[in-house]
Amino acid sequence: MVAGVTALLALWQARQGRLGSLVFGFAIVVLCVGAGILVFQTSSIWCSPLPVLAVVAPSTLWCFLWPHRKTARRAEIQPAEPEPA
Predict the structure, then answer these.
(1) How far apart are the first and last CA of the chain?
(2) In the prediction, which pLDDT does 81 show?
(3) What are the mean pLDDT values of the chain's consecutive 10-residue runs (85 residues total)?
(4) What's the per-residue H, E or C state across 29-76?
(5) Is 55 exposed, middle or buried (0-12, 13-18, 19+ CB in 10 A)?
(6) What's the pTM value of the predicted model, to 2 decimals?
(7) For residue 85, what is the enclosing H or E element?
(8) Contact assessment for residue 47 and residue 36, using Cβ atoms and an 8 Å cutoff
(9) DSSP class of 15
(10) CA-based nearest residue to 7, from 45, 54, 48
C-alpha cells in the first residue's frame, strides 16, 4: 500500500519543475523514513524505506533531467490586436 501511494505521489511529482521535484522527492523520502522509524519505535514493526526510495529516486531523477513544459494559455498565444488610430 505504501509503494502504491508513493507511486501516485511520484506521478504527481512530474508536474513540478526541476527544483520543485528535488524538494518534493527529498521531502517524501524524509517523511517515509520518519514514519518508518516512528512505527518501529512505537510497535516494533520494521517498515523498510527501500520500496519508497526505489520509486521516488528514479522519479526525482527523471523529473530533474526532463522537466515538464508549461503549456501556454490561449490568451498568451493570440497576437495583440492593433490599436485604433
Answers:
(1) 66
(2) 66
(3) 73 78 85 86 84 82 74 56 67
(4) HHHHHHHHHHHHHHHCCCCCCHHHHHHHHHHHHHHHHCCCCCCCCHHH
(5) buried
(6) 0.62
(7) none
(8) yes
(9) T
(10) 54
Residue identified by cell 494559455 is 73
Amino acid 80: pLDDT: 60
Residue 28 near residue 56, CB atoms below 8 Å = yes
What is the rounded distance in angstroms from the CA atom of residue 40 to the CA atom of residue 54? 20
The answer to whether residues 29 and 49 touch, using CB atoms and an 8 Å cutoff, is yes
- Cβ-based neighbour number of residue 61 at 10 Å: 13
Place of cell 526541476: 18
Residue type, 59: S
Collapsing DSSP to helix, strand or coil, 81 comes out as coil
pLDDT of residue 77: 58
